[in-house]
Amino acid sequence: MEFFYLLLCTSFLLIATHGLLSFRNWLSISRKLPPGPFGLPIVGSLFQIGDRPHESLMALAHAHGPLMSLRLGFVTTVVVSSADMAKEILQKKDHAFAGRAIPDSATAEANYELSVAWLPPGPLWRTLRKILNTQIMTIQRLDALQGLRNKKMVELVQHVREISVAGREVNIGWLAFATTFNLLSSTVFSINLVDLKSDGAQEFKDAVSRIMEFAGKPNLSDYFPFLRPFDLQQIRRSVKVSYDRLHVLINEIVNQRLQYRELGCARNEDFLDVLLDYSQEHGPEFDRRQVNSLLADLFIAGSDTTSTAIEWVMAELLHNPDKMAKAQKELADMIGTRRAIEESDIPQLCYLQAVVKEAMRLHPTVPLLLPHRAVADVELCGFIIPKNTQVLINAWAIARDASIWEDPTSFKPERFLRSDVDFRGGNFGFLPFGAGRRICPGMPLAVRMVSLMVATLIHSFDWKLPNGMLPHEMDISDRFGVTLQKAYPLVAVPFLHLV
Ligand code: HEM
To answer: Is 56 inside a domain boundary?
Structure first.
């Protein structure tokens, strides 16, 4: 008992001393940092941020400016809240801010140090980005695999048709997640991983869902790094089970493909074939561990983000029936009602593209982007940002900046019709995929998947809210997490209208 008491007192003293030292350290560096809220000892501004950081950080930026510093627990953080400042960080000083602040839950993955999302911007990260940009997410590769995704849309329509005939309602978020998973798995592995008819356990999807769920939980270890070894909320331990399971499943799929290749079976020319070819050609520079890790990255980074975006687009269309009618009219005029929409139709559908952009402006799926990190001391606008400072880019706040966007909180797809603003990060007022060297490498595929699925759902069906709910009665609020989810799942009733 005495020993336990001694241990407790020592731990308390250590933590208090560490806290005071860090606080003193913070005071000395804070003189050169951008302005910001002072914060309390030890916890800093954590309580001011609360559970809606995108909103609270925007409010704080109104008081302290678009380049603001604060302390979140023991983590010095700089928050960027204007397009001009985002341009400084993501374009002019991109090289200095391309590091990552790695959340503790991500370190539960056995090979997290191979993940393209968390690697520092060194040679391995550059190799992985080169493979993604030049071998996988190219127009030619994506075009070559679009037939597979069109097939998934036929299955989706068939499934929703059955629901519509039975007069049931659809949980759009669930449907979007399951379908995105199949779009990804057919593009990556040429297989279906989810049975749309069953909402029971489906291992691959469930593992990724749990990884995202745990990644979204506020974690003390992220704000007080000295607590990391203790994993007080058991987040790392719990999520490790899902990471391990995901890797076992990926390993099985890769092993099977290697066997087929040895037997000389026909090639699929999907992402997996491309990665295995590259690995064979480049040997140790890109070995089997890296193939598996990149495959896991694609599913973790690509599934929840894409399906959340689809749910938001559908939510805004149901909330704004006049915009839904316009989007459906465009589809009827351009495609007619006698054939299904295909991915190759999308470039002609200007209004649909504007709808997708506008929904992603109002509800950027990753509202603070992934946390960036200064890789060296950087001079920025007369301030010094010390090495290792975490940098959050509030893409959500920037997309609602009234000095860039007229009537910023309204859903007006028309604003994108006569505009050259695209997803490629050239306009710093619109950053749903980020910008600069860390921009989302999956963007070309993501935009195709979101547009194709929304177009298919509104081309083949009319949608109504359940229980006679009127569009203006819909709750369109959000819930902060790794991805910005709808606070209440979108449920709607489909009515077949394709002849
Ligand atoms: C609508 C869907 C998607 C959205 C909104 C989205 C958004 C983002 C954002 C904001 C980032 C961080 C950028 C930054 O920190 O500056 C990111 C990173 C990333 N995304 Fe996406 N993404 C989507 C879909 C996808 C897909 C389909 C894939 C792959 C199949 C993918 C793969 C990645 C990867 C690997 C990274 C990390 C890149 C790095 O750190 O170098 N994403 N995404």
So the answer is: yes
Task: Name beta bridge partners: 496.
Answer: 461
CB 302 within 8 A of CB 294: no
Reported confidence tier of residue 499, pLDDT bands at 50, 70, 90: very low
Expressed as residue numbers, the domain containing 265 is 32-496
Residue 489 within any structural domain of the chain: yes
173 CB near ligand 1 (under 6 Å): no
pLDDT exceeds cutoff 70 at 81: yes
For ligand 1, whether the C-beta of 297 sits within 6 Å is yes
Residue 1 belongs to some domain of the structure: no
Whether 88 and 238 have beta carbons less than 8 Å apart is answered as: no
Q: Is residue 14 part of a domain?
A: no
* Tally of structural domains, the chain: 1
Amino acid at 56: S
d(CA 480, CA 400): 16
- β-pair partners for 384: 379
Residue 356 belongs to domain with CATH number: 1.10.630.10
- State both tokens at 458: 């509104």
d(CA 346, CA 357): 13
Query: Other CB atoms closer than 10 Å to residue 217's CB: what's the count?
Result: 15
442 close to ligand 1 (CB < 6 Angstrom): yes
Which tens digit of pLDDT belongs to each residue from 188-229? 999 888 878 766 558 888 999 999 999 989 999 999 999 999
